[in-house]
Predict the 3D structure of the following.
Amino acid sequence: ALPIWARLVAAMCSGAQQRQTQLRPTANGNGAPPPFRRDALPSLLPHGQFGQRRGHASRGDARTHVTGLSDPLPEDLLAWTDRPLVTHLKDGSKTRGAAGEVAERLAEQLTPSPANRIFCNRSLNMQHITAVGFDMDYTLAMYKPETFEVLAYTLTCEKLVNVYGYPREILQYEYDHEYMVRGLVVDKKRGNILKMDRHKYVKVARHGFRPMDAETRIKTYNATTSPGGVDRFDGSNYANVDTLFSLGETYLFCQLVELKEQLIERGREAGGLTEAEMALTTKPFIDMYSEIRASVDLCHRDGSLKAAVASDPEKYIHRDDALVPMLKSLRSAGKKVFLLTNSLWDFTNVVMNHLVHGASGEDKTAEWTELFDAVVTGSCKPGFFENERAAIFEVDVETSALKNTDDGAPMTPIGASAAASQADAFLATAGARAGEGKNDGVAMHAKAYQGGSYRHLHSMLGVSSGAQVLYVGDHIYGDILRSKKTLGWRTMLVVPELAHEMECLERAMEEDTLGKLRDLRRRRTALEDALQLAEFQMSVEKTMDDDAYDALVRDATEARLSHREELRRMHAEFHPIWGQMMKAGNQNSRFAHQLERYACLYTSHARNLLAYSPAKSYRGLSDAMPHDMDENV
């Protein structure tokens, strides 16, 4: 009988070129892998052209995860939910076949489009949820990156120049909001941007905008070869790009890394650097990142960013006609609804007035609070979920002034009028009366607070267990991880980029890209196994002639490269630089791993709750291990 490796060689090497051409048909018909489309995104910047975009004309129809955030929100959700359900059998028939037809029609009608779907990691019965809460920024309020993020980026550059003495040339930089994606990690010490899989193996690394070669990447970050051993990537030298707010500052960090490297080279060759340029050449990358973060914080503290948004909310924030019906549907189902945001009251009032009423300026009111049973601003998440001793203040919704409270209960200042004392006493018992169905003829406005902790919120909502709360947010750490691990809240992560991810996956399925990858992976595995087995046997005894061995080496190498290029091509369809958001190579990405671990549900937008019953029972998929799979990409 032939040895195993010989049978594998006979099975896999015979007609290898013919099968490879069948597996991966290409434009030239020779089976050669297509080149990685490195120029598909205009923001692959030539060195020295920091932030200079080549214009959308050269982009064609290329889209990235963030491109879709510039699009108006889908308009089909309200129309979809208004469609009448099929409630009777065709022609009055009671046959089992007709019933099956109705069931199929109902299933088709009740299945939201991929962009509106909610996906389940951990089964959740909404009948057990008594309170549903929402973050505001990038959860209820979707900002337009081409205006809001560009504004934040521009103001940050101004702070770097005026406060920290950076070269004035950075004031001419432009922000390409389509370049960065969430789920990356910043190596602040080395000036690198990393994408890693769920095992924290770095798959993609760039120094500024420049790609790191595989040898340098593996030597620097591979746990088995790096001098420091296992790197957890969670110390002070690293920062997670886990919010959409952080994309602009990460892009700016890359630009400054490039600038520093170019200035060092220029100074070495010609000299003549300005004082600010010389200072930048000696500034550690980690200090550059810290000063970018400090500049971003200055933009928030000095009010420049909020003032611009308040003057023209329509320019910076998408309106959403599905938002109010979604909140009302939850309350009509008996759920308590709350808003929990780190934004302070003044900015929260601006944003929510725009979202709910389309109002701004002098037309703003506090009527939007009627949609909520509790409003907590300035919450300082994730500390809100842990610090039980945090002070809580009542917000005067008319003046934005803060009032002291006795652990959340109203306090009457010394010298206050009798009317004020009576009003505070009324508000102190308003929740109890509302729970009894009484309103005393007075409009019941949700009270707004600032600060506090989960203990105060649970008291407002009448919640006795964290498992009764579903919280919807966009920040994997600040909204999801801490609330789940500390309090046992059920969680839903908003991933706006998911719409683009689903669009690309649908296209990949239509083109059978995943099937091609499975075939290529299977062929690669078989040939590599055969080669490794042959090499082992030949090390003990020469059992294979040189020509057969050389052929096996060639085919195994060609199979590896073909599979690698096809995988790279598929990733480039999602994003030409960072690839599929939820994958790193063949593995789930670090972002996807965190999402799967901590988010019970995830979806592209909070509005998608409107497409489901408030009493829906979400069910997770069956878990699968490698031995459960017939085929593995």
